[in-house]
Amino acid sequence: MTFEQMWAGIASVGRSAATRGYFRQPYTSAELELRAWFTEECTRRGLDVEADGNGNLVAWWGSGDGAVLTGSHLDSVLDGGAYDGPLGVVSSLAAVDLLRDRGVTPRRPIGIGVFADEEGSRFGIGCLGSQLATGLLAVEDARVMRDRDGRLLEDVMAAAGLEPGLGRAAWLDRVGCYVELHVEQGRNLVDRDAAVGVASGIWPHGRWRFDFDGEANHAGATRMEDRRDPMVTFAQTALVARAEALSSGQRATFGRIEATPNGTNAVPSRVAAWLDARAEDDELLSGLVHTLEQAAADRAGLDGTAVTVTAESLSAAVEFDPALAARIAAPGGWPVIPTQAGHDAGILQTAGIPTAMLFVRNPTGISHSPEEYAGTGDCLAGVEALADTLQELTR
Questions:
Q1: Backbone CA torsion sign across 201, 179, 141, 35
Q2: Hey, which of 16, 124, 259, 313 would disulfide with 268, CB 3.0 to 4.6 Å?
Q3: CA-CA distances (angstroms) from residue 290 to 5, 20, 247, 278?
């Protein structure tokens, strides 16, 4: 089955008729359907599929240690695009097909991994499956994690027909290196007029919850000067976040908010807002977040409100294996570029596994949106680049 046929076969899974975006949240029917599709495709190719207790799947071509692992994830953000994650999985299967067409018999095993809940859209922590598999996320922390409906992670997994057994995965001991193919989430390759690129590293990034507390009141009867409105404090903080990120070349986004009581004719008593912040290095990220915390506190003092900031997750800067990146980039003359997005590849590199990433050009630069896109020609170039890489690394 060709790349195009596989891509067409999953295109409708989890897609909203209204927005044309994707809702493939972990352990929901859409994501489970894709997991079943992956297992079927691997079985059809004679690959041995195993599942760990963290929700991850791995399919093996060959036996033994020192394996070259590839793959990505199948879940999406809310109303996300088609390519973020699934492109890497479909391309991995297509790359194995291409190697077999070339008559290649790898001297080291090749694995294709599907990592669970990479986006963090359900339980609030990105790369959940790979963090558990590598032991970077403690089991005791995972066991108390709940989704937005208050359901525990292990209960959700069990209800989806999985057998939770959270903790470091034994299959990881077989892996010698990891190469993940991903659609680029930005315009670097567009600006360079290149179909494929290689990642140098990942910017540090994290998520912080800002709780702004004020006083609920009547929207009509309460004079503006008498209000203690946390929405105003939040709005001013969001404006500062944009200005600070623009002036320093970093990233700061308030993408999710919850107002209480959330009434049209009421001044809210509380606004909870989640900040996603990213920067070129750890020091710049710390400085950016500190500036925003201080700005929120200063504004709260003016508005008669209060603010509490809680760090929910933090991922330090990741430098991918330089020798591996150079080895992969050299044959095709592909550019080596940084990425501001988090990936399972960053988790495996942090865990001590030599890791590299291949990017496929995204002509719009848009991601985490229904407008996310990669042309078929560039996708096929990505498949060939991945196949060349796997062939080189398994000689």
A1: positive
A2: 259
A3: 49, 38, 15, 13
Contact between 99 and 54 under an 8 Å Cβ cutoff? The reply is no
pTM of the predicted structure, to 2 decimals: 0.85
Geometric angle at alpha carbon 316, from 311 and 318, rounded to 5°: 155
Residue with tokens 């959330």: 262
pLDDT in tens, the chain (395 residues): 899 999 999 999 999 999 999 999 999 999 999 999 999 999 999 999 999 999 999 999 999 999 999 999 999 999 999 999 999 999 999 999 999 999 999 999 999 999 999 999 999 888 999 999 999 999 999 999 999 899 999 999 999 999 999 999 999 999 999 999 999 999 999 999 999 999 999 999 999 999 999 999 999 999 999 999 999 999 999 999 999 999 999 999 999 999 999 999 999 999 999 999 999 999 999 999 999 999 999 999 999 999 999 999 888 899 999 999 999 999 999 999 999 988 999 999 999 999 999 999 999 999 999 999 999 999 999 999 999 999 999 99
Domain boundary (315, 337, 356) is at 315
Phi-psi region at 14: left, alpha or beta (left = phi > 0; alpha = psi -120 to 50): left
What's the CATH code of the domain at 286? 3.30.70.360
Q: Give dist(CA 203, CA 339) in Å, integer.
A: 6
Q: What are 138's two structure tokens?
A: 């403690």
Range of the domain at 226: 205-315
337 contacts 261 by C-beta, under 8 angstroms: no
Q: Could you give the CA distance from residue 341 to residue 325 in angstroms, rounded to a whole number?
A: 18
Using the Cα atoms of residue 329, residue 334, residue 340 and residue 345 in order, give the sign of their dihedral.
negative
Q: Of 267, 294, 315, which closes a domain?
A: 315
Distance CA 150, CA 314 (A): 23
* DSSP E strand boundaries for the chain: 48-51, 57-61, 67-73, 110-115, 175-183, 196-202, 205-213, 217-218, 251-260, 266-267, 270-278, 306-315, 318-319, 336-339, 355-360
Which residue carries 């590839």 as its tokens?
70
List of residues 6+ apart from 219 with CB closer than 8 A: 263, 264, 265, 266, 267
Per-residue tokens: 248: 């320093």
Q: How many domains does the chain have?
A: 2
128/261 same-domain check: no
